[in-house]
């Protein structure tokens, strides 16, 4: 087994390097967002849920659970904490007054955006080094990885639910 706990005999050196860098990227992203979360007075889960809300706009708790893969109970706790810290508000759904939607507070985003300005500029510099064809390949790879991650999370939740 390699240093990454993958059967090295079954993988090429390039595949091993790619898997190693993917794990490194994942770990560093978690640590980066944990640092940002601490600066905002949030935990990492709350911060990433707020990111979803800032990108999607108002959603119900159930929709946020679907987007994140979290349980509705966990999402309710996240929303409670985000509301207490002033990053979101609960409001009546304009299409169904019986439902509640969660809305990000614009001032919260204004406070967070500057923290990402440098990393965004650096990422744009990296992206500019690739052709559109290369970017399309990278985009496809990332989308498939994102779908895989959500599917694996749902699979683990189902296994955990059936074990209880």
From TrEMBL:
Origin: domain of life: Bacteria
Question: CDD domains annotated for this entry?
Answer: HTH_ARSR
Q: Which residues form a coiled coil?
A: none
Sorted alphabetically, which keywords does the UniProt record give?
DNA-binding
User: Does this entry carry the keyword DNA-binding?
Assistant: yes
Q: Is DNA-binding one of the keywords?
A: yes
Tell me what this protein is called.
Answer: MarR family transcriptional regulator
User: What sequence ranges are listed for the domain HTH marR-type?
Assistant: 15-147
